[in-house]
Amino acid sequence: MSFYTSLSGLKNAQTDLNVVAHNIANAETTGFKKSRVEFADIVAGSAYTNPKHIQGIGSTVEAISQNFAIGPIEQTGSALDLAISGDGFFQMKSAASGDALFTRNGSFAMDEAGYIHDGSQNRLQIFAPGADPAVDAPIDALVPATNGAGAEFAGVTIDNDGTVRASYADGTNEVVGTVALASFISPSGLRQVGSSNWEATGLSGTPQFGLPDTGAYGALISGALERSNVDIAEELVSLITAQRYFQANAKAIDTATQISQAVINLRT
Question: Where is the Flagellar basal-body/hook protein C-terminal domain (predicted)?
């Protein structure tokens, strides 16, 4: 039994190493949230087993949970770079499927049609002017190429409260909408889909929408990005711990092998 007990430890140590390596690999990924492995022990016994005689039979991975602590804010100067100073996620519309994606990565740009999007062409979602977040659904962030007077687009800015303003060659400004922020009852239940994006699941609950700098939602910081919340020093310590964990379980298997070999070699 000791072989299988230690084998479960080896597998768990490998999982831990993989998660730590993934965190370190994304230490410079904008909007990335680090993960940690949570282990649980395994015991076996029936109602007729003496509680004092129950033996553990190894461990298992109970969960790989994400830490949604806010990462450091880096100033960039770009008007379409946004960081959330508190709680909330940007909602994006997937370019591939049209499904809703959620992210803390506010590195946005504008395409030739006027849509505000991320590096994967997923479109930022905003509320139309005068919309009620409790009732109205967000829409694609689209900046008109000309205003009502026919003047051409000259630039775009986003305020701390999420208001998207387009400026035109005739000196006028128009409000395009307000950036939509989403929150979840259980963010740890979100499913990672890559590129610092998440999808809602039954564990996370449905998204609740609101406006930046209102209620529990954080204000926006224009010209800034939220960096990864990975602490390299902390991850290196975790890496050493996982390595020792792996080595200890490997040693336990080696010891069990030696004991088995000694029993086999017994002479009567």
Answer: 222-266
